[in-house]
C-alpha cells in the first residue's frame, strides 16, 4: 500500500510541478542566452520539433534557474573525450551556423531574468551601481560602457524555430534602471548591429568565442568616443585583414574552426608605431619599448593580466592630452588598444580587482575621464 501511495505521489508531481510552474512563471520571462520567452513554442515543424517542444514546456517548470543546454547533432557527433571541450558550456545550431557558438548556462548561473523589471536582489547590479557612484566622486565624466552579448548582435544564428530571437534583451531592464539613476551609459548594441557585414562574409564577433573581435571593438570605441568627446573626437583610420579564428573560449579544439563559413578574425593593418612607457602601479616596474598601434603589446610589465591589476601607459603619439582610465573585463582585450592609441595617458584597471584597490589608484591618477567597460550580462 505504501509503495502504491509513493508511486501515485511521484506520478502526480510530474503533472503538478509543470502546472504550478505554468501558473506562477510569467510568460514574458526571457531566457537570456536563448533570447526567447518562457512560453515560446516551436513556430514550424522541423526535424528537432519535439526537442524544441519539450524545451519550451520545460521552461515552465517551477523554480527553473538553469537547464542542460541541448546541442546540435553535429556537436554531439564530433565531440569526444579527447577534444578538451565541454559542450555543455556552449550551444550551436546546424545549417549555415555550423561552427557558431553561444554561451551556455554554465557561464551564467542566473539563466532566467525578466525583461520588464529588475530584481533588486541582483548583486551584479547593486555592486556595479555602488562602484560607479564611487567613481563619479573622482570625476563626473564617468561612463558605463556596454559590451553587448553576442546573442543580442547575431540572433539570426540562434534557433529560429522557437521563440523570437533578437526580439527580447534581458539587459533592457538593467539599462532602464541605470538611466533612471542618471548614470552616463554608452550602449553599443545599435552601433554594432548597424556596422554588421550584410553579406555575412565577415563578423564583428568571434564565432567560437564569447567576445567581439578587433573590428567589433573598434566600432564600440568609436561609438563611445562620439558620446564622450563629441565634435572633438577625430578618429584614427584602421583597416583589417580577415581570417578564421582558430581557437575560441567556447571551443578549445582548433579543428572545429575549419567548418565555419564566416571570417571572424580581424587583423589590423595599421603601420603606426610608438615608443610607449608602461608602469605596473603596484610593483613600480616600468618598461619602455616600441609598440605597434592597435595591438595588445601595451601590457609590457607583466606576462599576462593575472599578474597585474593596475597599469599606466604613456603613448607620446596619442592624439588627446586628456587622462583616461579604462576599467575592463575580458572585453577590454580588443578594446584597450584603441584607447591607448588615442590618448597619451591611459590607466588600465582590472574589473576583477577589488574596488578599494582600483579606487585608490584612480584617485592618485586624477583622470579626466573614466570608462567602465563590462559585458552586458555582468552589469
Give an overview of the whole structure:
- Helix content is 29%, strand content 20%.
- With 379 residues, it is an alpha/beta fold.
- It has two domains: 112 residues, no CATH class; 219 residues, no CATH class.
- The strands form four sheets. It has an eight-stranded mixed sheet with strand order 7-6-15-13-14-12-10-11, sandwiched between helices. The chain has a three-stranded antiparallel sheet with strand order 2-1-5, with no helix packed on it. A two-stranded antiparallel ribbon has the order 3-4.
- A hairpin with a 5-residue loop joins strand 10 and strand 11.
- Helix 8 crosses helix 9.
- The radius of gyration is 23 Å and the shape is globular.
Keywords:
379 residues; alpha/beta; 2 domains; eight-stranded mixed sheet; three-stranded antiparallel sheet; 10 helices; 15 strands
Task: Give the number of helices.
Answer: 10
Question: Taking all residues together, what is the mean pLDDT?
Answer: 79
Characterize the overall form: globular
Biggest β-sheet description: 8 strands, mixed
Structural class by sheet pairing and helices:
alpha/beta
Low-confidence parts lasting 5 or more residues at pLDDT below 50?
A: 65-89, 105-115
SSE string, helices as H and strands as E: HEEHHEEEHEHHEHHEEEEEEHEHE
Q: Report the sheet-strand fraction.
A: 15-25%
Cα end-to-end separation: 54 Å
**Strand order in space, largest sheet:** 7-6-15-13-14-12-10-11
**Beta strand count:** 15
In total, the number of domains comes to 2
**What is the rounded Rg?**
23 Å
* Helix residue percentage: 25-40%
